[in-house]
Amino acid sequence: MPIETLLLWTALAGPAAAQSIEITLDEQAVRDAGMNPDELQDEIEGSVSGDLKLADQTAFLQQMARAVLISTKGMGVDYASNPQHFLLGGSVGTGVNSAGARFGRGDDGLPLGGFAFQASLMGGLNLGAFGKPDGFFRRVVIYVDGMYADTKLDPFTGKATHLGAHLQLQLIRPGEGGGAVEWGGLAVTSGYEWARYEMSLEQGLPIDVADGTTWDATGSMVLSADAESIPVEISTNLRILVVSVYAGAGADVNLGARGDSEFRLDGPVEFSAQGVDRTLGTVVVSHQDEGVVEGVVPRGFVGAQAELFMVKLYGQLNVGLDDSFGGHVGARLVF
User: Fold this and answer.
1) 241-287 pLDDT per residue, tens
2) What percentage of the chain reaches a pLDDT higher than 90?
């Protein structure tokens, strides 16, 4: 039975972008399945482009970069404890962009919008820890943080990397401790952050084309995004008994944020309905693209912390004015 190539499309959108979709269908097999080859071709092209976000991959990669940019904000800084000596902690969280107020990537193969997972271990030291209680360096805390982590997000494996260093200065020192209510003063924080998130395909990626028809895509697919930034923040906190709340605002000076994609997928188009199984053809997709994000992103954040002696359990929400949301939870030991 003859096999006819119905579509071979190659598009170039610049020196870094290249895309090709090749659909080869067995016309007789398609008709035997009760479908029109031309209509099935259109359905395959639409489903593949939609599920793999080929129509505007550059914008999707920019969303990934923005998600990475916000995903680590606050992981390496304590805004509520006002540490007088040193602290250790860890946290996990996510960032999203252009996906609404949510913190997951959705149920589709690729994220609904930009998505990034991050984890961090951190430590902080009050520079006046061993000096006079009223000395200037009691106002200064330095933090370092970072981590590498793997995650399983079927059908992908995620890799998260994060490094950061921050300096926090108390512009107005906290109130006197010991009472049921204590204002935490006013602090300004800045530093340097670099984060990267990568998704790589580890198994098949089935794409529904039409009723009973699926493209079983396999092959290589890697999407990555990284971001460098300098956050500049001002924050305050209030403790009531063993619960502290904090809030702040600032801006992230983007030193470089970009997303990249490169993949080659192929596989059969399978039809299965009413006890009939047949292969209708094959699809081969190749794609390479990038998306770059520039500028300064204003951001606000809020958080809450519960205290049990030296143990602090907290959660924080970040909201960027570029349609980004980030959130993380963690625990810290404060001495």
Assistant:
1) 999 999 999 999 999 999 999 999 999 999 998 778 899 999 999 99
2) 76
Convert the pLDDT of each residue in 71-123 to its tens digit: 999 999 999 999 999 999 999 999 999 976 665 665 667 888 899 999 999 99
Q: Which residues pair with 100 in a beta bridge?
A: none
For residue 248 the two structure tokens come to 């702040």
Domain ranges, ordered by start, for the chain: 4-334
Residues 6+ apart with CB under 8 A from 317: 301, 302, 303, 325, 326, 327
Check if the beta carbon of residue 40 is closer than 8 Å to that of residue 48: no
**How many CB atoms are closer than 10 A to CB 168?**
23
**Alpha carbon distance 59, 113 (integer Å):** 10
pLDDT value, residue 147: 96
Structure tokens at 184: 């935490």
Fold of 4-334: Lipocalin (2.40.128)
User: Residue 315, Cβ neighbours under 10 Å: how many?
Assistant: 15
Going by C-alpha positions, the residue among 123, 121, 119, 120 that lies closest to residue 88 is 123
Q: Is 50 helix (H, G, I), strand (E, B) or coil?
A: helix
Number of other CB atoms surrounding residue 43 within 10 Å: 17
Contact 57, 17 (CB under 8 A): yes
Rounded-to-5 percentages of helix, strand, coil across the chain = 10, 65, 25
